[in-house]
Structure formats: C-alpha cells, structure tokens
Specification:
single chain; alpha+beta; UDP-n-acetylglucosamine1-carboxyvinyl-transferase, Chain; five-stranded mixed beta sheet; four-stranded mixed beta sheet; 16 helices; 31% helix
C-alpha cells in the first residue's frame, strides 16, 4: 500500500492481464459479527484484511471472542449470544466503518453491558438516529454523547424480559440500508417470540439486505420477508455456526477493473482484463455493475468465479441510470462517463451524501477538475465529458472509493497527468489496489519518471536512493543489480560477454523483462544463482572496458510502480 502524501499517475496507455480481488467488506464484517454471536467455532476463509475488518476484529476481541488467525483462514469462537456479566465500561473505537458501527450498536444494545462507541470525526457526522430510534422503541437504553442522531454513543444494559417485542419495530429505509441490516443481525438475540420489523419509506440498497438475509440463513436464522416492507424473525431463532464459511471477493472492487477493461486497449498481444474471485452469480448486489458497463459498451464474459472484460464500443455510450441498486459501484460509472459520447446521468443516489464523505459533492468537485461539466442535484449527478482534459490533483476526502475510481482517469486520451492525494485511504477495503492496477496497466517508457542518485564509491548513495524510493513509493534499482541481470540475460541468450557483443547486450538491457517483488529485482523466469555469479563476474570484466557505454550507468536509480 502506498503511504505517501500523494501518488502521481503518468498517462496510462493500455491494460491487460489478471487481477485477484480481496474479500468483500460487506460480507466480511457481517460474517465476523455473526460468528461472534453464534455458539461454537467458525472458520472463515478469504476474509478481507483492511481497516474496516481490523476495527471489527479489535471490537470482537475486546468483547471476549476467541480469534485465532491461521494462514489465510480465521477461527472465531463465538459468545453464544451472551456476554459475561460485567459493569465495567468498555470503550470501542470503530474508525469510519459503518459496517461495524451500525450492526455493533444493535448487537451490543441487546447483549448487555456498558459500552461507548466512537470513531473518526467523519463517523460522528454519519447518521445513526433512525437505528437508535428503532432500538429505543424496544426499550434499549442508548445515549448520544455528542450531537443527537450521530455517534459517539453510550449503550446501557437492558434485560430481555423488559423489551417491548409484541408490536412491530419500525425503522426508516430511505437513509441507509445498514439500519435494517443491523436490526436483522441483532434481533435474533431476543427472539423469544416472533419479532416483526416494518420498513418506513422506500428501502434503498436492497441488494445489501439480500446479502444480510443470505448470511443469516447460513448461521441458522430463517427470516421471513413480505416484499421489502416487512421482515419476521421466527420465535426461538438461535445463531448456529456453519463451521466453515468462504468470503466472496468484493464486487464493488471488481467495478474498477470491469471499467478498466471497458476503457483500456490491450497491451503486449493481450486483450482485456480477467478478474478472479467473483462471478456474475455473486450474492452481492454490486455485481449488477456488469449490466451498466455493458450498456456503456463493455464486452463481458463470466464463469462461476471469474469475469473477463474487453473494450467494445468506443467512445463509451452515455447512459441515464437509476443507480440505487449499486450505490457504491455507481461511483465508478461517474468516472466512466468521462469517456462517453455524451452526457450521462446517475439517479436515485441520495445515499452518497451519508457515506465516508458527501460523495455527490466530492465527485462533482473532482470531475470538474479534469474538465468535465457536472450538474449536481439532491439525488443525481449529470456528467458531460471534457471538451479538453486538464491535469488534476484529486482530493480523496479519506474515502477509499474516490481514490480507486479516479485512478481510471489516468487513461485519458489527452495524456494529462493525474495526482491522487492520500492514496493510503484505499486501506479501508483494498490495501493493494494501486499495486493491482499497476500490475496490469502500462505507460510509454518516456512517461516513467526516474530519479538517479550518483556519488563516489562507499559514499552512501545506495542507502540514500533506497530511502528516497521507500518514501516516494518508487521501485529501487541498484546499478549493480542491473549489471548482474544484464549478464544473466546475455548468458541465457548464448552471447559471449566480450566486446564483440557489447552493442547487442546494450540493446538487450533496454528491454529486459525486469520485475520488482518484495525488495528483490528479478527477470520474469526462474533464476539460477550460479549463472548470476558467473555472469556478474564476467560482465564486470567487460564493463571495466566499456565505461562509456550508456546502458551501464554507475548510479543508483528509482522508478515508480506503473511501468
């Protein structure tokens, strides 16, 4: 993950290859909470490792859950729906994770105990009042510690016998579907009788409720649904561990690479982007982003756990879309609209305003920087592609999705540069996003920035260069490593390391398939260390006679990731 203050993206000219996605945030945090509430031990496979899942895991540890990481799996020993009696106040910090704050508020209000829930300043601006109102209908005791209707919260214990569960519990559905999800996940704790939840107003983001219902069924809770207005949790419901559960790759994260396949031309004889970890049959609503991408012209093939996307219509076709069913992935459509053949409109996206930032305002502001004409309404965004692209420094507002979708602007046909501010914000859901993007994207060699650090022998130039590279997020290339790799490539090509082949070797050095992995510099093939030793010794002798040759620099160099 890039932890620099900003990341400068050169003009990216094409992309092709395979990307493996991380686990779904929405599924990961729901599964973590359900495993914590259930009896027995649940083994979770392919859990997302990100800021949001880490704050949830920290909270579950504090609550007394057994958590045992083992390679790519995580074993959670649940609470069995009960907390040990304890009157000590337990403070829990939940960052900016709505998928932790909302469900934990409901669960802790019913588990019993004294809790204080807080987060980053933006979390204290994200509404939670409708959920608290629904819980207080039952008799739960929750205090606001700041502005009414918003975190931080103080939660007090209440006996289940004192809860009013006979009448339907009413909750608004037109602000955030997470309020309903929180109630559905938590209310089985108190289901001595049937518990009915009634949704007031139109329920937004219905696909996220489908994820919740699907996962509840996996943990033994069979919720009855009457349309999208009424949900019944049967009397006697109890969470039971499924034993093992696998987390799908994140469909929202797939949207960036689906868009990339639609936008970018192929490279090196390859055409299109293959996305592994999620397919068209995903339980996640954001997989329907595929439909919107196809409307804009993308060519999509899919299998049970993969997608392949290629550019079709170009420029992309403008769309007018109700995007309420894909609220997170719809942000990617706003950037795709920059490449369309006319104005595109995304409608029914008022929920953007209560996300990690006010995404409607933020998206409009940053799209305009690139030259787009943007009309921002209370629940819609209309984007007209730039008549002339302009270089831009994109503010990300501590919002992971702003950083990820705006990186796609680097493929603009005018070749203008794009700067992404605070790139580490992608750690919320996809810590290695930029590394994944750079693994398939290509730029023209002249656009790759290179910094050279030179100096006398033993002057510390290597130490300085490696530290500069680390701080800038660049790759570090030691000239000595370049000599050795060039020698190895020449030996493999059957070239004698002598003056007769010096020009051939120099030309070879310009196009070596060098990759940077975990601080090492390698050719794209298994390396024989004995050959490397022979080659470097022989090449050192040759280079001693070829000092003027440009391909044999005496300095250290750094170059950034998108090559």
């Amino acid at each position: 993950m890039f932890s620099t203050a900003f990341l400068d993206l050169p003009p990216l000219v094409g992309a092709a290859g395979t990307v493996r996605l991380p686990g779904s945030k929405s599924i990961s945090n729901r599964v973590l909470l359900l495993a914590a509430l259930a009896s027995g031990t649940t083994t979770i496979h392919d859990l997302l490792d990100s800021d949001d899942t880490r704050v949830m895991l920290d909270a579950l540890r504090a609550l007394g859950c057994g958590i045992d990481p083992a390679g790519s799996t995580l074993r959670i020993t649940g609470l069995g729906g009960q907390m040990k009696p304890d009157e000590t106040l337990l403070p829990l910090f939940l960052g900016n994770a709505g998928t932790a704050m909302r469900p934990l508020t409901a669960a802790l209000a019913l588990l019993g105990g004294e809790f204080e829930l807080s987060g980053v300043p933006r979390m204290h601006e994200r509404p939670i009042g409708d959920l608290v109102d629904a819980l207080t209908q039952l008799g739960c005791h929750i205090d606001y510690l700041g502005n009414p209707g918003y975190p931080p919260l103080r939660i007090h214990p209440v006996a289940h016998a004192d809860l009013a569960l006979d009448a339907p519990i009413r909750v608004r559905g037109d602000v955030s579907s997470q309020f309903l999800t929180a109630l559905l996940l938590a209310l089985p704790l108190a289901a001595r009788n049937n518990i009915v939840i009634e949704v007031v107003g139109e329920l937004i983001s219905k696909p996220y409720i489908e994820i919740t219902l699907n996962l509840l069924a996996r943990f033994g809770i069979a919720v009855r649904r009457d349309g999208w207005e009424r949900f019944t949790i049967p009397a006697g419901s109890r969470y039971s561990s499924p034993g093992d559960i696998h987390v799908e790759a994140d469909a929202s994260s797939a949207s960036y690479f689906i868009a990339l396949g639609a936008i970018a031309t192929g490279v090196s004889g390859q055409d299109g982007i293959r996305i592994e970890g999620v397919g068209a049959d995903s339980i996640q609503g954001d997989i329907r982003f595929i439909d919107a991408a196809q409307q804009m012209g993308a060519l999509v093939d899919s299998g049970p756990n993969w997608l392949e996307v290629r550019r079709g219509a170009w420029p992309l076709k403008a769309i007018d879309l109700d995007a309420n069913h894909i609220p997170d992935a719809a942000m990617t459509l706003a950037v795709m609209a920059l490449y369309a053949d006319g104005p595109s409109t995304l409608r029914n996206i008022a929920s953007w305003r209560v996300k990690e930032t006010d995404r409607l305002a933020a998206m409009a502001t940053e799209l305009r920087k690139l030259g787009a004409a943007v009309e921002e309404g209370p629940d819609f965004l209309k984007v007209t592609p730039p008549a002339a692209w302009t270089p831009a420094s994109i503010r990300t507002y501590d919002d992971h999705r702003m950083a990820m979708c705006f990186a796609l602007a680097a493929f603009n046909p005018s070749g203008v540069h794009v700067r992404i501010e605070d790139p580490k914000c992608v750690g919320k859901t996809f810590p290695d996003y930029f590394e994944a993007l750079f693994s398939v994207a290509r730029t023209a060699t002249p656009h790759i920035p290179v910094l050279c650090v030179d100096g006398p022998t033993a002057s510390g130039k290597g130490t300085l260069a490696s530290e500069v590279a680390r701080r800038l997020g660049y790759h570090y290339l030691d000239s000595g490593a370049l000599y050795r790799i060039t020698g190895l490539a020449a030996v493999r090509a059957g070239l004698a390391l002598d003056e007769a082949h010096e020009h051939t070797i120099a030309r070879m050095a310009e196009t070596l398939p060098v990759v940077f992995t975990e601080g090492l510099i390698r050719l794209r093939a298994p390396i024989d260390p004995f050959l490397v030793l022979l080659a470097s010794c022989a090449l050192a002798t040759l280079l001693s006679r070829l000092r003027p040759q440009p391909p044999a620099p005496a300095s250290h160099a750094t170059s950034p990731a998108p090559q």
